[in-house]
Every structure is written in C-alpha cells, then in structure tokens.
C-alpha cells in the first residue's frame, strides 16, 4: 500500500515537472483583443483586431503617449488563419476570450456571414457573450479604428452603447453569437443585427486628438437594424421600424415615444412596461399570427393643449397611441414581408400552434410569410403624469 | 549517578546520610543541610536537607518552628515510650504540609528535587519529606495567546500546581479526577492527566495512559514534546492535539469529555482528542451572543480558505484562466504586470517568502525592535518592491490578505499547516491552474479525513457527518440548544442541560 502510494506520488510529481506548465500565459504575454472586425479583401477575408494597451486603460494613470487601443489587420482565406497571421504584426499572442464586439462590414454581410462565423463558434478560446454588429456603409476595420471618449476602449463603448440604447431607447438589438447562429441554422428563420455608422473623418477619429474635443468630430453611432435573409444582409430597418421590431419581439424594456395630440402638438410618453405575446393560429386552414401587446405608459412631456385630468382625454390618448403603435409594427412587418425574411419567428409560432399546418407551409414558408395575415391587438394603459398634472401650456387658458 | 547508591536504604546516622546526599548531588552549592537539637542535651537530633532555590523559606521556617516550639511536649511523649518517634515527628509537622515517609536515597533525592524539605531523624533509617515547595514562579497572568474581549483573564503558568488549581476552581466536582506521573528519565517532569469521570470516554483515558507510559525519553521540557510523542500521525501538518493557555477552554473541554494533559514547566496544556473544527473555535464564541459567534465562525472558515488559496487562486487565474477574470479587472491586472520581470508564480513566491521572513523575524525580536521590523516590512513589501518593479501591486494585496486572514484563525497551531499547504497549492496552481488547485484541495481533504485523534475521526462531525453536532461546528446555536455533548468524543452522560428556549413570561 505504501509502495503504491509512493509510486502514485512520484507520478504526480513527475506530472508537475514534465507537463511544463502547459497552456500557461502570463498576463503581459497576451494581446487582449476586445474587438474583431471582418472585411472582404478581394477573395480573402481581412481580419482586424482591436487590442487593448492595458497601461492606458488601467485605473492608474497611463503613460499618456499611446492610444488606449491599437488595431492590426491581416488577411487570409479563413478567418482564423488570418488571426494567426496577425502574430507577424503583434508582439503578443492574440487573446480573444475578452472579445466584446464583432463588427462585420456591410459588404461582407451582403455576401453572407455564415462562413466567417464558423471559425469563431468553433474556437474554444472565444466566449460567445460578445455582440455582433454590422458596419453600415463602411468597413469593419474603419469602425474599429475610431477612438471614443469617456469609455476609453472603443469596443467597450460599442458594447455598452448597444446595451443601454436597447434598454432605454429600443431601436437597437443586441445579438450574441449563439443566438445569431441559432437563427441562421434554421432554414425558415431569419435574423437581424444592429448597424453602426461612422460619422466624420476617419483619419481624425484614429488619432488621439479626437479625444480632446468636447464635441468629437468623428464618432460611432448605432443606426437601424440590418435585416438578414439566410446569412445575407438584404435590407435596413429605419429607426421606427427597428422599434417596431422590438415591440413585436417583446424586446422593449423602456423607451420614449411621441404621438400627436387631438388638438395638434405632440405629447411624449414613456413606456415603463411592455409585454408582447405572439401566438400562431390556423383559421380555415390558413396560418395566422396574433400579436398581443400590452403597454404601460407614463406621460412624460406635454407640448400641446390637453386636459389630462379628464379621464376621457386619457382614453382618447390611449387610442391614439394604439393606432400609432399598430402602424409602427405593421410597417416593420411590411418591410420583412417585402424581403420575405421571417425575422420575428412567426414560423416557430405557427409550428407551436399547429405542427400539421406547419408541415404543409414549411416548404414554401418564404412566400407563405409574405402572405401571412397578422393581427395586432394592443392594450395601452396610461398610468401616471409625473410630478405634475396639467401642463403649463394649458393653465393660462383656464384662468 | 550510580544506580546502586540510589537504591541504598538510609543510614541510621544523620551525618552519614548528609554526607551521602552531598556525594550524590556532587556537593552542589544549593544544598542546604543542618541539624536541630530538640532538647538541651542533644539526645534527640533532627537533620534537614533541602535545595535552597526550590524551597519556600517561610514554609521551611514553619516546619522548624513547629518542631522547636513543640519540642518539650514531643520529647515528653517520646519518653513515655509508647510511640514510634518518627510518627510523632510526622504528626508534629503535619500541619505544615503533606508529609511522606522515605526509606531510600532514591526517594529522598526525588523529593528534594521537587522542593520538599527532607527531615532526617537520628537513629532511624527513615526520613520525612515535607512539602515546602516554593521557588520563584510567574503569577497568574492574562494569556498572551488567545486573548479575548469578554471572558476570564487568567492563564496557565509554568507551575503545574497553579494550573491544577485553576482548573479545580472551575470544576468543583469530585468526579474531576487527576492522575500524576513523572516522565523523563533525567528531568522527571510531572505530567498530570485530568478528566471528569462519568463523562470521559474510558477508552480514550486508557489510550492516553498507554501512550504516556510508552514514552522513554531523557527530558520533557514542554507539552510540545509530549504532543509529538503521543500524537496519532507524525507526518501531517495538522495538529491532532489541542493546546491552550486558557483554563476556561480546558474546563469546557473536560465538560465535553476530553482529557487534559498538564505538563510541569509550561503554561500550554494539551487536550485530547482534538478535532479540526476545534481549532476554529475561540473561547469567546460561547461568551458572546450566538448570532455573533456564528458569524465570526463563518468568517474564520472564509479566512481559512483565503489564507490557504488566495495566492494559488491568483496565480491560476492570471496565468491559466484569464477568460474568467472580468474584463476591466483583467486590464488593470495586465497593466500592473507590464514590465514585471518574473512570472506570476515567482512573484507570488517572492512575496510570500518575504512575508514569512518578516513574520519569523518579528516573532523572535523584542517588542521594541519588532516595531522597526514591521516598518521595514511594510515599506519593503508595500512600497519598495512595487516601486522597484519587482512585483505588481495586486500581488501585494493578495499576500497581505493572505497574511491577515491567517491571523484570524484563533489557534496558532492551525495557522502552521495553512502556511505549509499554501506553498504546495501555489506550485500546483502554477503548473496546472485551477485544475491543480482542485486536485491539491482534494488531496488535502482526503488527508484530513484519514486523520484520527485518539481514535476519533479528525473531521467529525463533518466527516462522518453528525447532524446533531452541527449545532456547534460552523454554527453556534443558542446555549439552550447545545444540550448534548459532542457525540464522537464520548457517548456517556450525553445530556448537558435542560433549559427552555425562552424565559419570556407568557401573556394570555
């Protein structure tokens, strides 16, 4: 027994010595990559990485002579090959576990993205909790080269801006790799990605001087949702339609919208709670979709003549909101139908409701989707008026 | 010293006896000898021998006074011839202390060495030994280890007699039994075992007897010597006997059915069997409110793990599992590591060793110099090493929290295995990452579970799991709920108390 123990201990110790610290990397041997961009470069892919200069972003004051990030680009037939090729440019090994954002250029997106995503989803080093966005009208490399104020790491800025705008404004949608791939892998389902736009001069955005401006002349801005059919970008939803998409998907956490008052002028309403139920139905052998939207709103800004203290006004307002909401949602559905892209997962809803009908329509779902009847039922509740009741615009008239 | 002289019986003549004693002790200068004459004609002579520094002078004077003042009466009684003179003398001095009758030189020397005064009676081969033990000793002071905010302030001293009295004063029961023996061929150190009959597990007492009897050594200078000779497992960093300077802790241990082993010459009393959880309990846990005690105990276990694993965890996270570190923290750590010449493991080792050096230096130095060391230490570790670019500031924090956590554990002897195992885990972390740390921890737990303390599983009541004993393991239930003694230590007389949960008056 003791002999056995000794042999066992020796083996363990040998393991310690012989394994030679397999897979060990010191922190200062890593090029921490926070952003990756995919572009088209002839027949090859151009991979751009945004690498953090830890000294510049750490809480301790940096040396000040370098930028918080550096980007490197390399091209290759496959994405990971290009990534390995980057080692000829960077002093350290690319470490992608802390990837925050993946930018795909519009050009590449229009050609199809499934090829470039395979490598990323296969690699064990990459976590799948980064967001994917599309560089609208520009290249991913350019987007990644822009320096951003306040949030020193641009990839982090893109990550956080996407999250906050989705939470508080709703025309963006944060899509992570696994969700995107899941949608791609279903032949009847299509997906969306948020677009990012580069405003201003690229050269200026690359230099640190952009950080010392109170109003940055070059900046990144989310704008619209890219509509994918299969793995190809086919169309863009505008801001309104993007919001409509989020309403349909039940993705709205909080947002602000305005409607026209009965007597002209506008009134802004804040959505404090939103709930959407999507259900498939079969009526006379035809599939239908019922969407129930439930919204709770607060009046947040009044810029018109309206007597909020009158209950009738409130119900009238609710009706106006309902009309507006339906209009927005239908416009989104219309856009999707035009492109024959089921970005909402209507197909899934019908499959859940009636698998038999689904089997019939599945094969020609593209066209079925374009013809699909969608009913929207909205329930709007205006709850509170904030810390005051009637607007100051109303009061002088009453006197 | 030749054995045959010691085994000789005493001579009839005082002078011969004294000469022999002097020979035996090699004419040591601290031997005091003298003769008293009980009557004017010097018919009745009495001799005394003692070791100067071991005897309490006033006690000795009491003895001589008793003899001299009662001499007239004594001689009268002797002259009646009805009584045996040594018995009469024994009776005379009985009031001065416990008296023993000795017949050979061996006993005589032993008694002299424990501070007794030996009285030789002319014409009889008999000596009387009176307990006049004295000599300088420390008074009862507050223990320097295991001090408490609330609780008794007395601590054991180097004198076994004082220590026994401190325990006896707390447990006024005839069932508190004391057995004394001398261990050490040369030192003849008094070792006592104490237990409460009727509560203690007799098998454990028997085992302790057996193990103590097996000791064959020239000298016992501290209870640590005994501990190493009677512990169950030699090759373990974990202590399997508990030691404390606090009589209240020993008293509570006795009440739980444990056995105390007292060694003359040290304030540290041993307690057996000792369990792993015991080293995370402080006397104060039972004097403060239960809620607070529970919280503090949980904190101690947390600190145990911090102290054990913090450096290895840091090494594993920064060299193997960077993906587990939150991004912004990673940037910070990476920035700190820029320009550090050593790998994280060497960095950690460097700091840990530096800390151990400082700690060891601080322990040995006098208090005044100790302060200087701590200043140097703080500057060297905190500032210098970071400014010199040898280690990263984060590593200093890790080492600091490791060190501080170690001091939270109430028992010093449990701090030592943590310090040892920490380094082993660091090596594992540097070679295998968290996988290695986990393997190391599994190994440690296996080892812990294999330990026994006098037959009691070391990890009980956690492994084997005893639900009822969980009341006083990590948690500390209110006093009324702790009605049973720990089940694994003794199965006798298990119920300790019978109290209602609340004494609040009931309203209708």
TrEMBL record, chain A:
The record's annotation in PROSITE patterns points to:
PROKAR_LIPOPROTEIN
Q: Which residues cross the membrane?
A: none
Any Pfam family from its record, for instance, is: Spore_GerAC
Record keywords, A-Z: Germination, Lipoprotein, Membrane, Palmitate, Signal
- Which locations, inside or outside the cell, does it occupy? Membrane
The Spore germination protein N-terminal domain is annotated at 23-197
Q: Which domain of life is it from?
A: Bacteria
Annotated membrane topology is: Lipid-anchor
Span of domain Spore germination GerAC-like C-terminal: 223-386
Family affiliation: Belongs to the GerABKC lipoprotein family.
Q: What is this protein called?
A: Ger(X)C family spore germination protein
TrEMBL record, chain B:
Q: Which Pfam families does the record match to this protein?
A: GerA
Which family does the record claim for this protein? Belongs to the GerABKA family.
Keyword match Ribosomal protein: no
Which InterPro entries does the UniProt entry name for this protein? Answer: Spore_Ger, UPF0353/GerABKA_families
Transmembrane segment boundaries: 298-320, 394-416, 423-445
Q: Which UniProt keywords apply?
A: Membrane, Transmembrane, Transmembrane helix
What protein name applies here? Spore germination protein
């Amino acid at each position: 027994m003791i002999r056995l123990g000794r042999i066992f201990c020796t083996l363990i110790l040998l393991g310690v010595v012989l394994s030679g610290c397999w897979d060990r990397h010191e922190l200062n041997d890593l090029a921490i990559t926070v952003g990756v961009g995919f572009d088209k470069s002839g027949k090859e892919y151009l991979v751009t990485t945004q690498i953090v200069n830890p000294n510049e972003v750490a809480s301790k004051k940096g040396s000040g002579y370098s930028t918080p990030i550096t980007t490197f680009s390399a091209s290759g037939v496959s994405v990971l090959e290009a990534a390995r090729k980057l080692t000829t440019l960077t002093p350290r090994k690319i470490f992608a576990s802390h990837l925050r954002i993946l930018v795909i250029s519009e050009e590449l997106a229009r050609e199809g993205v499934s090829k470039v995503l395979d490598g990323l989803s296969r690699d064990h080093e990459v976590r799948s909790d980064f967001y994917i966005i599309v560089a609208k009208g520009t290249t991913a490399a350019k987007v990644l080269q822009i320096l951003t104020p306040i949030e020193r790491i641009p990839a982090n800025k893109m990550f956080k801006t996407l999250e906050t705008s989705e939470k508080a404004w709703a025309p963006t949608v944060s899509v992570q790799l696994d969700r995107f791939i899941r949608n791609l892998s279903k032949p009847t389902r299509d997906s969306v990605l948020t677009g990012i736009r580069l405003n201003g001069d690229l050269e200026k955005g690359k230099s640190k001087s952009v950080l010392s401006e109170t109003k940055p002349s070059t900046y990144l801005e989310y704008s619209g949702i890219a509509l994918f059919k299969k793995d190809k970008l086919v169309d863009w939803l505008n801001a309104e339609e993007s919001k409509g998409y989020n309403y349909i998907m039940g993705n709205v956490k909080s947002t602000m919208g305005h409607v026209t008052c009965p007597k002209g002028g506008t009134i802004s309403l804040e959505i404090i709670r939103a709930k959407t139920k999507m259900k498939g139905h079969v009526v006379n052998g035809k599939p239908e979709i019922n969407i129930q939207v439930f919204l709770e709103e607060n009046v947040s800004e009044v810029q018109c003549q309206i007597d909020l203290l009158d209950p009738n006004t409130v119900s009238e307002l609710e009706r106006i909101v309902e009309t507006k909401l339906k209009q927005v949602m239908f416009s989104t559905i219309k856009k999707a139908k035009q492109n024959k892209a089921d970005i909402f997962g209507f197909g899934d809803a019908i499959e859940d409701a009636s698998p038999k009908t689904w089997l019939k329509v599945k094969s020609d779902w593209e066209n079925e989707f374009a013809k699909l009847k969608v009913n929207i039922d909205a329930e709007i509740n205006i709850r509170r008026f904030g810390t005051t009741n009637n607007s100051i615009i109303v009061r002088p008239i009453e006197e | 010293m030749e054995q045959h002289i010691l085994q000789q019986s005493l001579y009839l003549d005082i002078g011969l006896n004294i000469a022999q004693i002097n020979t035996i002790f090699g004419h040591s200068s601290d031997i005091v000898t003298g003769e008293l004459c009980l009557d004017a004609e010097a018919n009745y002579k009495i001799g005394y021998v003692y070791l100067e520094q071991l005897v309490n002078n006033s006690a000795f004077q009491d003895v001589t006074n008793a003899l001299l003042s009662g001499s007239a009466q004594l001689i009268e009684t002797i002259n009646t011839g009805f009584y045996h003179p040594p018995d009469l003398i024994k009776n005379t001095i009985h009031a001065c202390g416990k008296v023993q009758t000795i017949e050979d030189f061996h006993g005589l020397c032993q008694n002299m060495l424990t501070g007794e005064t030996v009285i030789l009676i002319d014409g009889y081969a008999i000596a009387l030994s009176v307990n006049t033990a004295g000599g300088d000793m420390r008074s009862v002071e507050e223990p320097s280890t295991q001090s408490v905010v609330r609780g008794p302030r007395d601590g054991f001293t180097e004198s076994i007699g004082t220590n026994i009295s401190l325990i006896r004063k707390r447990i006024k029961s005839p069932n508190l039994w004391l057995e004394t023996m001398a261990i050490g061929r040369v030192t003849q150190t008094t070792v006592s075992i104490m237990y409460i009959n009727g509560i203690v597990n007799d098998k454990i007492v028997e085992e302790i007897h057996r193990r103590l009897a097996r000791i064959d050594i020239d000298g016992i200078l501290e209870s640590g010597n005994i501990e190493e000779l009677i512990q169950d497992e030699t090759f373990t960093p974990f202590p399997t006997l508990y030691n404390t300077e606090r009589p209240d802790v020993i008293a509570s241990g006795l009440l739980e059915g444990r056995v105390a082993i007292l060694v003359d010459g040290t304030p540290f009393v041993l307690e057996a069997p000792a369990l792993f959880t015991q080293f995370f309990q402080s006397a104060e846990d039972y004097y403060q409110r239960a809620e607070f005690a529970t919280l503090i105990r949980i904190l101690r276990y947390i600190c145990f793990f911090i102290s054990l694993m913090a450096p290895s965890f840091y090494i594993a996270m920064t060299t193997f599992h960077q993906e587990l570190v939150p991004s912004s923290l990673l940037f910070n750590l990476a920035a700190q590591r820029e320009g550090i010449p050593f790998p994280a493991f060497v960095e950690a080792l460097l700091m840990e060793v530096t800390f151990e050096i400082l700690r060891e230096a601080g322990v040995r130095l006098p208090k005044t110099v100790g302060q200087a060391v701590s200043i140097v230490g703080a500057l060297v570790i905190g500032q210098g090493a970071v400014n010199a670019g040898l280690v990263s500031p984060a590593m200093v924090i890790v080492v600091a929290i490791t060190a501080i956590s170690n001091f939270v554990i109430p028992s010093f002897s449990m701090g030592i295995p943590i310090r040892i195992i920490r380094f082993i885990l660091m090596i594992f972390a540097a070679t295998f990452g968290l996988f290695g740390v986990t393997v190391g921890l599994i190994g440690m737990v296996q080892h812990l579970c294999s330990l026994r303390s006098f037959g009691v599983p070391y990890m009980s009541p956690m492994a084997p799991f005893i639900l009822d004993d969980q009341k006083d393991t990590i948690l500390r239930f209110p006093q009324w709920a702790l009605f049973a003694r720990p089940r694994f230590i003794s199965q006798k007389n298990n119920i300790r108390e019978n109290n209602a949960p609340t004494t609040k008056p009931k309203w209708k």
